[in-house]
Amino acid sequence: MAHEDTHDGEPEVSAPKKTSVGFPGIAQSMRIALDEMGPVRSARTLLKMNHVDGFDCPSCAWPDPDPEHRKTAEFCENGAKAVSWEATRKRVDAAFFAAHPIAELRAQDDHWLEHHGRLTEPMYLAPDATHYAPISWDDAIGLVADRLKALPDPNRAVFYTSGRASNEAAFVYQLLARRLGTNNLPDCSNMCHESSGAALSETIGVGKGVVTLADIEKHAALIVIVGQNPGTNHPRMLTALEKAKRRGARIVAINPLPEAGFGRFRNPQTPRGLLGRGTVLADSYLPVRVNGDLALFAGVNKALLAREDAAPGTVLDQDFIATYCDGFAEASAALRALDWTEITGQCGLSREQIEEFAAQVVASDSVVVCWAMGLTQHRNAVATIREIVNFLLLRGNVGRPGAGPSPIRGHSNVQGDRTMGIWEKMPDSFLDALQAEFGFDPPREHGWDTVDSIRAMRDGKVDVFFALGGNFVAATPDTAVTEAAMANCALTVHVATKLNRSHLCHGREALILPCLGRTERDVRAGVEQFVTVEDSMSMVHASRGRLLPGSDALRSEIAIVTDLGHALFGDSDGIGWRAMGADYRVIRKHIEHVVPGFHAFEERAVQPGGFMLPRGPHDSRTFKTATGKARFTVNPPTMVQVPDGHLLLQTVRSHDQFNTTVYGLDDRYRGIKGGRRVVFVNGADLRAFGLRDGDAVDIISVADDGERRAKSFRAVQYPTPPGCAAAYFPEANVLVPLDSVAETSNTPASKSVVIRLEATGQTSAAGTAERNAARMAGTGAG
Ligand SMILES: Nc1nc2c(c(=O)[nH]1)N[C@H]1C(S)=C(S)[C@@H](COP(=O)(O)OP(=O)(O)OC[C@H]3O[C@@H](n4cnc5c(=O)[nH]c(N)nc54)[C@H](O)[C@@H]3O)O[C@H]1N2
Ligand SMILES: Nc1nc2c(c(=O)[nH]1)N[C@H]1C(S)=C(S)[C@@H](COP(=O)(O)OP(=O)(O)OC[C@H]3O[C@@H](n4cnc5c(=O)[nH]c(N)nc54)[C@H](O)[C@@H]3O)O[C@H]1N2
Ligand SMILES: [Mo]
């Protein structure tokens, strides 16, 4: 990786890859590790990843194998990148901030900002100042407390959370917000799996997945992977899929892009994988049109019903439907009435392809459906996921081994944060428990989620924006609107490990509070502490950092939040903020009392592998829905209308990024090297626009409230269905209208952006200069 040339430039393009991992993956992550950490630290750190006595990988939320089955290095290319990035020896210290005015930093791209290294001490930006300057911890915490105390209404504060916060940090953080008197707790999940949570709570009574790693590895006969790119975003899932394949399971991938992870997998953990040809993972691949999954699943369900009609008693699980479900009559009638041309027209697949998929389903005793952002970030996302629940219920594929819905979560502890109460609308049962434990009245009125927080900030309803991690302005839609919304706040505060754009799009005053990362030793009152996390499959376990902290001044997120709690409320409220900050066991005791499923938390957290939270639908076919049954629902297929001459753009991650953290400028599997401003388009569409592969284009999104432009992209001819396009997030976020959201979940529809392309008549290299100029001018085009 050429760190000297860190600016996004003219990319080199080659054919997409059909094989994942193997030696190139290891070589790539070792390059980054050596560059960031040097050899000794690299070896020490990477060997402790995902070990029973080590730290939880801060990358994705994929579960760890049983303790007995973990490899010496439970290694994954992108996990290694995430760890190296955090454990880097580079530093962004007071001298760095003195040398670089904010205006100059804002002109840099996201890769440049983060690659300068770890933040080392608290920094303060005074009103009208041009530079951040050092501030002591006491003054920083005192300042935040003063501003919060001065609020005329606690709802003028917003507390954002990114999904890397531990259970303990999340618990004290939500406690602080609610003790202050607000439920304004937006989080990254609002932009991520909120649609899954909404659909699953309504239909099966829990907002998260119910499938375990063993279901995938050992039991499922058919694994459907829809709207997910596991080779890049959950690389360890490929190992699980390989195990499933070797015992005879079948895999169907549904995706507008033929991602490398569906092809030949060369497992870096086995000689077979490294030296042999590897294992082909997906048996079939359905190139669905972007946003066409609702129609596709409605079609499969219709086909299953037709097969049952042709041979009654052979296709549906009638006993399961009769005993455990309701709504079947209405849902099946609606599906039977659907028109095939409507279905095939929407999803872009033929009736034969859909019938063939239905045949595979009927031939499989148990089916798991895994999905991620390809489903959740559309306007019809909740309806699509509800239709997938219909699909599973039809054949009783919930509540038995190898079957069920499996939303694959993103951030390593995003699921745990929700369990701990990070949600703007926690149910009364949780708030009652909080009240009983701490003796104050938590607010009951729902707070703002991410999109509503941005609207409130834009409209001048927020004075203090506080973020526990994340990169709010880069991760959220409508970059220009969000940046202006942040500037509208009186105070913006970021608890962070690395410098990012959100620290530079600040309120009138701003603070950066540098914290420990997962990899680092956390000692409080002379005693080494650990924290806990919950993975995508409801396993809760301990995580212990091993490295010396990046600077002596770093504090844990828990210490920062509990110090703020003490500064706000002192000892008078009896909550004992200081005691929680001094000994995390105190926090775990409170969690045990407040959150269901956490009995004997302390003991169970440290047992090898941790413990599993109860999953009613899977364990006992218990469905805590409005009717106490699993619910079939009616979801008429609809999709975003795309006018002639326009495409539907989805925004994706490259192989070299973690959300807004850009490790490098390559996307190896998709054949892109050295640049991120690319837009992937079907060849026929390019020709229809009079464009050729390699042309420089602007991307213009069109919405009811007007047009938005992202400048200077390179058009790349790519095997995606006609009418579809893809570009990288966060560069493309400027195109996503704030008001374009999923129904019910309010998740930004960042994978359903209606766009057109405009040739700029220049090479994309010339565009780089223009783009930098645009960023300097703060037009939000960057
Ligand atoms: N290395 C790495 N790991 C990560 C992350 C990271 O950025 N880097 N991010 C983490 C986070 S927070 C999350 S949420 C997850 C995200 O994991 P993913 O959801 O895999 O991430 P995306 O890159 O958004 O990929 C979306 C996939 O859905 C497909 N897709 C897009 N639109 C549609 C559609 O309409 N229908 C179908 N069927 N498919 C569609 C895209 O082609 C792509 O393959 O990964 C987590 N893990
Ligand atoms: N267009 C588009 N937009 C999207 C998406 C998309 O697919 N397309 N995906 C959405 C999704 S799924 C998500 S989850 C969000 C992600 O949104 P966020 O969670 O807000 O963003 P991240 O990029 O994960 O945050 C990176 C920053 O977190 C900080 N950080 C890293 N580790 C730690 C830590 O241990 N503690 C603290 N306090 N800070 C830390 C670093 O300073 C780093 O700069 O983005 C969403 N936005
Ligand atoms: Mo996410």
The geometry reads as globular
CATH topology value of the largest domain: Rossmann fold
> What is the spatial order of strands in the main beta sheet?
6-5-18-17-16-7
- Stretches where pLDDT falls below 50 for ≥5 residues? 1-6, 771-782
Give the mean pLDDT.
92
Helix amount, in percent?
A: 25-40%
| Small molecules bound in the structure, each named once | ligand MGD, molybdenum atom
Radius of gyration: 25 Å
Strand segment count: 33
Question: What's the domain count?
Answer: 4
User: Helix segment count?
Assistant: 32
The top-level CATH class of the largest domain is Alpha Beta
| CATH A-level architecture of the largest domain | 3-Layer(aba) Sandwich
Decide which structural class fits the backbone.
alpha/beta
Distance between the termini: 23 Å
| Percent of residues in β-strands | 15-25%
Main sheet characteristics: 6 strands, mixed
Features:
MoPterin_dinucl-bd_dom; alpha/beta; binds ligand MGD; 37% helix; molybdenum; iron; 6-stranded mixed β-sheet; 6-stranded mixed barrel; disordered C terminus; oxidoreductase; 32 helices; binds molybdenum atom; 782 residues; iron-sulfur; Dimethylsulfoxide Reductase, domain 2; Rossmann fold
Structure description:
By secondary structure, the protein is of the alpha/beta class. The protein has 4 domains: 75 residues, no CATH class; 301 residues, Rossmann fold, CATH 3.40.50; 214 residues, Dimethylsulfoxide Reductase, domain 2 (3-Layer(aba) Sandwich); 131 residues, Barwin-like endoglucanases. The chain is built from 32 helices and 33 strands. Strands 6-5-18-17-16-7 form a 6-stranded mixed sheet. Strands 25-32-29-31-30-33 form a 6-stranded mixed barrel. Strands 12-9-8-14-15 form a 5-stranded parallel sheet, with helices on both faces. Helix 1 packs parallel to helix 3, helix 9 packs across helix 20 and helix 14 crosses helix 18. The two termini are 23 Å apart.
